[in-house]
Specification:
heterodimer, A: 111 residues, mainly beta, four-stranded antiparallel β-sheet, B: 111 residues, six-stranded mixed β-sheet, five-stranded antiparallel β-sheet
Chain lengths: 111, 111
């Protein structure tokens, strides 16, 4: 079974803090993704990576950056957290054209 | 760009059949996925259609018409545990086969 894990289920940060969200997958998938999910807006792609050290912007990359130093790990970084980044963050991984497997999500609150 | 439409909410009765529709507009269509997401949990993969027709998997079936830009998810013999959001997502062969998600259909199954 594919397993995608995320470092925290719940996180509370203050405005202006730097925030790291970590994602690890154990199936040697080359593609990894970060989404945020908000009511009424669905899942929106922030960034994705198709290989180590490679990254591509998704639909809403502003205010975020990513890092992929190892194949199994994909990190999302909020350089200076703002209240409008309060959301559910979901990581996913896949190989080829097959389905994406999602992690359990991190509910981030920025106060 | 890509546009995906699905109803916001549906209700049905235990034991009944429900059909959740999804229409899409995309360039370079490369497959359509359905995911199930229970409240507070990660999406889980249900089905994948890349060719026209019906794919059946137990109580769940998914249909695709590429010429009409249309898919539906059919749930038979509804159970209370089927109460969840159902996400339609389209893959295109541009942009590393990333997925674009609809906003989801929340299904409420009542006794």
């Amino acid at each position: 079974d594919v397993k995608v894990t995320q470092s925290s289920r719940y996180l509370v940060k203050r405005t202006g803090e730097k925030v790291f969200l970590e994602c690890v997958q154990d199936m040697d998938h080359e593609n990894m993704f970060w989404y945020r999910q908000d009511p009424g807006l669905g899942l929106r792609l922030i960034y994705f990576s198709y290989d180590v050290k490679m990254k591509e912007k998704g639909d809403i990359p502003e205010g975020y950056s990513v890092s992929r130093e190892k194949k199994e790990r994909f990190s999302l970084i909020l350089e200076s957290a703002s209240t409008n980044q309060t959301s559910m963050y979901l990581c996913a991984s896949k190989t080829g054209a097959y389905e994406q497997y999602f992690g359990p999500g991190t509910r981030l609150t920025v106060t | 760009g890509q546009n995906i439409d699905q109803p916001t909410e549906m209700t049905a009765t235990e034991g009944a059949i429900v059909q959740i529709n999804c229409t899409y507009q995309t360039s370079g269509f490369n497959g359509l996925f359905w995911y199930q997401q229970h409240a507070g949990e990660a999406p889980t993969f249900l089905s994948y259609n890349v060719l026209d027709g019906l794919e059946e998997k137990g109580r769940f079936s998914s249909f695709l018409s590429r010429s009409k830009g249309y898919s539906y998810l059919l749930l038979k013999e509804l159970q209370m545990k089927d109460s969840a959001s159902y996400l339609c997502a389209v893959s295109s062969n541009t942009g590393f086969q990333k997925l674009v998600f609809g906003t989801g259909t929340r299904l409420l199954v009542s006794p």
